[in-house]
Amino acid sequence: MSKFVRVDKEKCIACGSCGDAAPDIFDYDDSGVAEVVFEGDNNRGVTAISEDLYTDLQDAVDGCPTSCIEVADQAF
Ligand code: SF4
Predict the structure, then answer these.
(1) pTM
(2) If we measure between CA atoms, which residue out of 45, 71, 42 comes closest to residue 58?
(3) Scanning 30, 47, 48, 56, which has its CA 20 to 30 A from the CA of 3?
(4) CA 13–ligand 1 middle distance (angstroms)
(5) CA dist., res. 37 & res. 7, Å (int)
(6) Does the C-beta of 17 come closer than 6 Å to ligand 1?
(7) What is the Å distance from ligand 1's center to 10 Cα?
(8) Of 21, 15, 13, which is closest to residue 5 (Cα–Cα)?
(9) CA-CA distance, 31 to 8, in Å (whole number)?
(10) What is the pLDDT of residues 24-35, one digit of tens each?
């Protein structure tokens, strides 16, 4: 099953945790707010994440203090 991910940027507090856990998936905008950058997704949540990154993704989700990383098995 595929995984798709996006950040609810309204809830992100720019803590910097997700980019440490999953640097291939998350980066930050000019305000430090996280967004999904995997394969140019641009935080749309429409790009299937590579299976080899699932552990990193789960670490990021588990470490997000505001639970604003949204994961689904279909594109958003
Ligand atoms: Fe934002 Fe959560 Fe990433 Fe922290 S871990 S930067 S709150 S998305």
Answers:
(1) 0.97
(2) 71
(3) 30
(4) 6
(5) 10
(6) yes
(7) 11
(8) 21
(9) 14
(10) 999 999 999 999
**Atom of ligand 1 at shortest distance to CA of 21?**
5
* Six-digit token string for 64: 């997000």
Condensed to tens digits (0 to 9), the pLDDT of residues 8-58 reads 999 999 999 999 999 999 999 999 999 999 999 999 999 999 999 999 999
Q: In whole angstroms, how large is the CA radius of gyration of the chain?
A: 11
Tokens for 3? 């995984």
Q: Given the CA of residue 28, which atom of ligand 1 is nearest to it? A: 6
For ligand 1, atom 2, the nearest C-alpha belongs to: 64
The C-alpha atoms of residue 3 and residue 66 are separated, in whole angstroms, by 20
